[in-house]
Amino acid sequence: MTQGFSLAIDAMGGDNAPDIVLDGLELAAERHPEARFLLVGDEARLGGMLALRKRAAKLCSLRHAPDAIPSDMKPTAALRQGRNSSMRLAIDAVAAREAAGVVSAGNTGALMALAKIVVKALPEIDRPALAAIGPSARGDVVMLDLGANVQCDARNLVEFAIMGETFARAVLGLPAPTFGLLNVGSEELKGDERLRLAAEILRESHVGAQFHGFIEGHDITAGTVDVVVTDGFTGNVALKTGEGALKLMRDLLRQVFTSSVPARLGYLLARPALDRLREWMDPRRYNGAILLGLNGVVVKSHGGTDALGFAHAVDVAMDMVNHRFNDRIREGLARLSAAVEAEPAAAALAPVVGETPA
Amino acid sequence: MTQGFSLAIDAMGGDNAPDIVLDGLELAAERHPEARFLLVGDEARLGGMLALRKRAAKLCSLRHAPDAIPSDMKPTAALRQGRNSSMRLAIDAVAAREAAGVVSAGNTGALMALAKIVVKALPEIDRPALAAIGPSARGDVVMLDLGANVQCDARNLVEFAIMGETFARAVLGLPAPTFGLLNVGSEELKGDERLRLAAEILRESHVGAQFHGFIEGHDITAGTVDVVVTDGFTGNVALKTGEGALKLMRDLLRQVFTSSVPARLGYLLARPALDRLREWMDPRRYNGAILLGLNGVVVKSHGGTDALGFAHAVDVAMDMVNHRFNDRIREGLARLSAAVEAEPAAAALAPVVGETPA
């Protein structure tokens, strides 16, 4: 059955829902006039708001949800008590194959738990992973896993690499994205057995030519590769450490530029260039954490974002839907299995990949 | 036996040795007139250079070493072939208890390997750890392990915490440094069993009041704690990711301030304040990676640093020597064992700490 809707939209999730959700859809509608959105939430309220947003109104169908999941609700409670929530009904639409994906700015833990349990992982995938896009010196960089899996084995890392590579093709539009495994050194013997095994499999795979090998922490922002592959513990720490370092620098610059009258004047003179830098690093441009490896596209927008940020999250989800992201992943994993089976040197690794159901 | 020398100095290690080493000692001599340095290297060359540096000359005794370890030599080769090198003879002086510690700007891998094998770990310590000091929004922050141990168990993390806390008292001069365990969330149930067990032991220890619990990546630069405790894999990635993010920001700012005539002018006006920021974040202020948990103080200066940076590395080593750093660690570990034995709730954890030789 073909999905009737491109995306189900949780209209009630996020700090300023449903306003920024609808304003975001109005922006997104301009870029995706072919899309069809299933807007899930308080029907009476949404109907009136949608009447004021002409472009979005054309693409949206309303579905009533009497509840919303609070931002501080535990995932287990959301599972039990959230059956009539806008988030749950939007996710249900993906599970029922009414919509190809879902976008929500609501409770992250609840979205991840509901998506994993209701939408479920692709049969080829052992563990779904959380990915995001960030800035680097050479453009955008994709990193995964960012915390969905605290412990990972070689098979998980290989699957993350295939998913990340496919994601970079779909969303960054790169014809042959490069990727690397995050490690404590770039030499082949660095790291643990798990990393070395994953590297060996990837080198011999159909995307071996795009595999840069091991990379280090500084390579993330240097743009050494398009996709950084790591376990959820390391990825989560690296993401937050990088964000923390950038925040420290921003805060210190703010102090610098307000520390004296000449410094204030200097700021005013450099402002157009500083504004371009700020715009380039704008968190809204990088809004959207993506749960990869499920039977549908699942994008989490930041809860505190504005309409522009929500529209970016919709963009990412639409890119994935339009590129038939999951079909591409399944093809990639099938080619990986074939490569590993055909390559005698990789025979010893077969048990790892062999766990993949055919 | 009391050590005759405060520090053995590898005069021939680093990109600009022995010049910056001797200039660094001349600076350090001003701050540590009570110190005694064993200067190890090419005697003929060093004698003449020392004659030109009066303050350093007063504190230094020369010891001849015919060789120097090249910067690209593998640690295993350094062990076999470096027996007459300046680095090895400086380390030998620590092992022979002639000097309380060693400072070298030479080959990092060789220094770490030689120090571990020749100087050896303290009997109470399972695994030595690599620590460094960096900038945070609230002052300096210590982080360890930065890569000496890719895999760690709960006992290792607990020992790192005791060593880091002691280090922050000795080198940062804090009376009761706070510390936290790096994790993917601050809630008690986050992370793996190893982290939860380490946290439980630390909460019940004699430094439990200083234990902040779990922290996240962004807490490192936010200055949430004085000491960040983590395994060597995560610490190495976090350190390099944070450095990479700061470098990206510096590079982008350089572009901003050269992008137009007004921006250049703005830079000139804000320059005094920007220079203060640059000085505060100066990598030379944070020069020196410290291998903690050995039978002596071992400090690695950055190979490319200048005299000021080398003097800072000597400062760190002298602070550790003057505070009898290793005695403090042994006291800390003894108190930890006593606390764990006295606390009935921690009985289940005794096997972990019980591995510590009495």
TrEMBL record, chains A, B:
Transmembrane residue ranges: none
Show the Gene3D superfamilies listed in the entry: Isopropylmalate Dehydrogenase
Q: Which GO MF terms does the UniProt record name?
A: acyltransferase activity
Which cell locations does it reside in? Cytoplasm
What UniProt keywords apply to this chain's record, in alphabetical order? Acyltransferase, Cytoplasm, Lipid biosynthesis, Lipid metabolism, Phospholipid biosynthesis, Phospholipid metabolism, Transferase
The EC category is transferase
Known catalysed reaction(s)?
a fatty acyl-[ACP] + phosphate = an acyl phosphate + holo-[ACP]
> Main location per UniProt?
cytoplasm
Q: Which pathway does UniProt place it in? A: Lipid metabolism; phospholipid metabolism
**Which residues fall in a coiled-coil region?**
none
Which InterPro entries does the record associate with it?
FA_synthesis (IPR003664), Phospholipid_synth_PlsX-like (IPR012281)
> Which family does the similarity line name?
Belongs to the PlsX family.
Record's function text: Catalyzes the reversible formation of acyl-phosphate (acyl-PO(4)) from acyl-[acyl-carrier-protein] (acyl-ACP). This enzyme utilizes acyl-ACP as fatty acyl donor, but not acyl-CoA.
Provide the assembly information: Homodimer. Probably interacts with PlsY.
Identify the PANTHER family for this entry: FATTY ACID/PHOSPHOLIPID SYNTHESIS PROTEIN PLSX, PHOSPHATE ACYLTRANSFERASE
In its UniProt entry, what is this protein called? Phosphate acyltransferase
Give the organism, scientific name.
Answer: Craurococcus roseus
Q: Which gene encodes it?
A: plsX
